[in-house]
Specification:
Layout: H1 3-32, H2 39-60, H3 68-87, H4 98-118, H5 129-145, H6 148-151, E1 152-153, E2 156-157, E3 160-162, E4 165-167, H7 170-192, E5 195-199, E6 202-205, H8 211-226, H9 230-248, H10 251-271, H11 273-283, H12 288-292, H13 298-310, H14 333-366, H15 370-394, H16 413-433, H17 443-450
Antiparallel strand pairs: 1-2, 3-4, 5-6
Amino acid sequence: MTAKRRGAQLAMLAFAVLIVMGAYASVGLGLDGEIPSGMLTYGLGLGALMLAAYLVLARFAPWGDPLLLPLVTLVNGIGIVMIYRIEHSGKLGAGANATNQLMWTALGVVMFSATLIVLKDQRALQRMTYTAGFVGVILMAIPAVLPGSLSEVQGAKIWIRVGGFSIQPGEFAKLALVVFFAGYLVAKRDVLALAGRRLLFIDLPRARDLGPVLITWAFSIATLVLEKDLGTSLLLFGTFIAMLYIATQRTSWVLIGILLFVGGAVLAGMAFSHVEARFNVWLHAEDPTLYDAGGGSYQLMQGLFAIGSGGILGTGLGQGHPQNIPLSFSDFIFPATGEELGLTGLMAILMVYALIVERGLRTALAARDPFSKLLAGGLSFILAWQVFIIIGGVTRLIPLTGLVTPFMSAGGSALLANWILIAVLVRMSDGARRPPPQAIQDEGLTQVMQR
């Protein structure tokens, strides 16, 4: 990358940090009428972290996409600001801790840097296809076999908790499984692309080729049933179907995937009370009985009230009521942000997410080998799909799933996994953008041949 482009990337990174610091000052002015005393500490801390990430990127991935790091810095920083604001909003914000989130961000930057340093070429991951699949399945299965006291939080068995330490292995499993999906589909895409019988306007796949889809479907339904985790189940199965479509270009796989998941979810809702409860809250959120019931629709409706009261421009940072939304610093940080930044602010944040995904898809198009194309497409889709699932849930477009907003919500596992995801995308963009080596010619030999 030329010095000019590096300077532009550094300027965009500094601009993102300045926006975050402006938001931080606005929170203090809205809460107390003065700039927060810790603003300099947070600003210098975030700036130093991102400068370190930039230096590692410039050294080990100089041709990497120049927009990914500034865009992620902006979203991550806005998340820290909102967690700080919720931390000072009352007793329901007691679980929010902006200092902890900044520390998790620092660890995320370390993971980002380590990934760029260790992963010299993303094609090395293709040789680990089945190892990655095995690791992903094990990470997903561990919480299901642990006692509820070590794995269950608010009904979902998705954690490993030992003493004061807790981790959500599913966040890392999704990365391993995307690597497995990419390696497997590259090897089998010619077979999976073969058409069987034609039904109406759709070429159906051969029955013998349905095995991978049925296995993935069964795995996602098992996750839904055993771990009570609708979000991860939908995330993984949707990602596999999307990558299958990218690999084969057959719409029939998408239709089959949709029918399988909807059918499985309906059956699970009829057979298991916790799945049925999620659908009842989604369909009948305004019901006073559900609103007042424990684990009912109170949280969902409070989030909708917050977005509605924010209107177009919002109440202003520090002037909303995020304390009225349970877990506003985690699952429901998007509605809390919408109350204070309004619909305009939410659209701006969604545009940043869209740009991150767009840069990932651009990397997929520019990649020079099938595995890198599919891996970049899968990682970009899983990020976009997660944003859709969580925002669709808190706005009542789809049932609430319990996923968190990438880079914004409080928590360590998701933040670390997403920073690793961005590092892999940067590595692939570096490989795609790096100019091919120039052949070194012997000038003397060339002159002789010309004579």
